[in-house]
Sequence to fold (486 residues):
Amino acid sequence: MSEVVLPNTQLLINGDWGDAADGHRFTTVNPATEAPIAEVALGGAADIDRAVRAAHRALESGRWPAMTGAERGRVLNRLAAIFRERMDEIVLLESIDAGKPLAATRRQDVAAAIDTLEHFAGWADKLAGEVIPVRHDALTFSRKAPVGVVGAIVPWNFPLMNAVWKTAPALACGCTVVLKPAQLTPLSALWLGQAALEAGLPPGVLNIVPGSGTDAGAALVSHPLVNKIAFTGSPQVGRGIMRAAAENVTHVGLELGGKAPIVIFADADINRAVRATTAGAFFNAGQVCSAATRVVVEDSVHDEYVERLTERVKSLRVGNPLEDGVSMGPVISRGAMEGILKYIDIGRSEGAKVALGGGRCGKQGYYVAPTLFVDAHEEMKIVQEEIFGPVLTILRFRENDEDEAVRIANNSIYSLASAVWTRDINRAHRVSSRLHSGMVWVNTYGPTDARLPWGGLGGASGIGRDLGRAALEAYTERRTVWMQFD
Fold:
């Protein structure tokens, strides 16, 4: 295995690397070993102000606003090419900083980042308005313009992928960006900044300021020169962002939490459902907003499903993400690990039964065993609250009672993702149309694509969409022009 290549660990503002205004730094830690990785500049409110002002200048003057959409697309394609050329480097960096197994990081995180860059590169020169005839003596039309300076705040569970999900469509649309990565996982964002400069992105178009949410994040959300906040993270923080953004009436897009249900009917392919559930629940150690956390199983196949699922989950190998064959790495931090273990204790105290797992793995690193709960009921905390770890709860519904299955699945404040398993195509259509979530999978679980919109239906899962054409709408404004010469 090659040595990890660290990016520049300063702040990137207006195309230059530099220390934080107050000189503060913080340590990023490998969650698999608890060992320090690097010292990183800790940006604060003063640094955010410099970054936002640089982004505003880059939006108003210089090379970026003078570029055509085709030229912007070529920059994004060059950035994607750098990802391909240095794949091993960024995969290892992301794996060490976020505790992700190497193979999964290569297959999912980095591959999705490249695909997203290339997809939106192709859209950059296709952002057309429309002519809207109103009167014979006037030319009336709408045009699409960049929404402006985007403040992108991304989480630690998919640091690189989420950063690209925000920046790629924003840049394709001609916006400029101030990116605040999570303090726990700043390294791949800084790598992205380096690569963007190499690809020819002009100074000030992409600025990167690692820092805390309470200082740097709050300053970004409340800055009067920021035109849109694009946030992925917890519902609690999302609500605070909406309140703060209201002061300047800033556009807001929020991708928040999830408590995704999988509804399994008796006619489903149980083996395939088991494989999909295992991946959906324990990929990235369950630290996924769309993780499969509630399985609602028809009574007649419940016991068979639990037995097969238990055997499948037992085969998962938990360990150092840099080792071959590891299925699941650590959770991100000691605090996260302790919070997950507390939820497991709550589940026991509420009367649910631990069918597998239920504790920490080893004494070094933040490892939690894949955990299955059975004999749960709808109102338990482990069923209603987002645990954000490798914990799956299984519930029953009565035989042939489709209404009960849907009711249990929809009994949640979350609305991000769901799934239904059945061989009956009519039932698949009926149930998928009734599940209250922005993404519904049928006889599969978890695939996403840059071409498909992604986001919740409100509540604790947030508002707005990443990816697809919806992202182009999120980062553009429609301006109406009325031309008359008489």
Q: What stands out?
A: DSSP finds 16 helices and 19 strands in the chain.
